[in-house]
Amino acid sequence: MKHQIFIASYAKDFPWLESCLYSLRQFAVGWLPPVVCVSSADRAGAEQIAAYTYPEAIIAVKDGRPGQGFMRAQLGMMEADLYCPDADVIYFLGSDCIAFKELSPESYYDKFGRPVVLMTKSTTLEAIHSGALPWLEGTQRILGFAPPCEYMRRLPSVFPRSIFAPMRAYIEVRHGQPFEDYIYETDAIHKNTSEANLLGAYAHRFMPDTCAWQDTEDMVWGESAKNDTAILQMWSHGGLDRPMDANVTLPDGTKTFGLTPRFVIAKVLGQ
After folding, report:
1. Burial of 202: CB neighbours in 10 Å, binned 0-12, 13-18, 19+
2. What is the pLDDT of residue 133?
3. What is the enclosing helix (H) or strand (E) of 126?
4. CB-hemisphere CA count at 13 Å for 27?
5. What contacts 243, CB < 8 A, 6 or more positions away?
6. What is the phi/psi pair of residue 11, to 5°?
7. What gap in Å lies between CA 147 and CA 94, rounded to an integer?
8. In this structure, are strands 89-92 and 116-121 parallel, antiparallel, or unpaired?
9. What's the confidence (pLDDT) of residue 125?
10. Confidence (pTM)
11. Residue 224 confidence (pLDDT)
């Protein structure tokens, strides 16, 4: 099986993208080169960053509607199978993420080769992460059924390429519109579209055998969470100097909770 990371980015996140690609070049093992999806206006900047951080990275271009740049990025992810034609499994990563130790695909699939999708029951979500509830409302609006779970529980989000095209076709048939037109027009009103939840909820109902579904019911969240991932997810809107809530333990024993992204990035990448 072939695995590929897909990053939807834009110019304001390029300081983060630089560190993200540096870290993948340093720690990622067993992957196809990552795909970075940007608009035409940002292509030259992304190519320049890739040239000195990860020369093999693929720069893909997707343009969108004026004023809906965030939705352009989400649509890029929901069409990632088109930009990752050689990948069997596609992983969504944010520009504001870094790998901090060896990162391999084996951490993300089960013994049958199915990608592991984390999910949290909607009844549990209200207590631990009520801010995610609007994404479930948007998922129901688009797919036409109430999703039993929330599927955007970590980065990278991971999905098999086989679910992307059927999900888009289902939405087109249900709403009688081209996929992108429907998403752009309705999200401009509701602003509650979530790419990982659409893919996760669609696959969970209609193609459940394609993924290994892992309930987060017994997982611990917050500062005391056990985190054995190789990815540190930061928060680009908070800036490089805002102490972060993300808590992982670096290989030297340093815990990242309360440290600034700038400090941690320098420590991990030796910069």
Report:
1. buried
2. 76
3. helix 122-128
4. 22
5. 258, 259, 260
6. -55, -40
7. 24
8. unpaired
9. 72
10. 0.93
11. 45
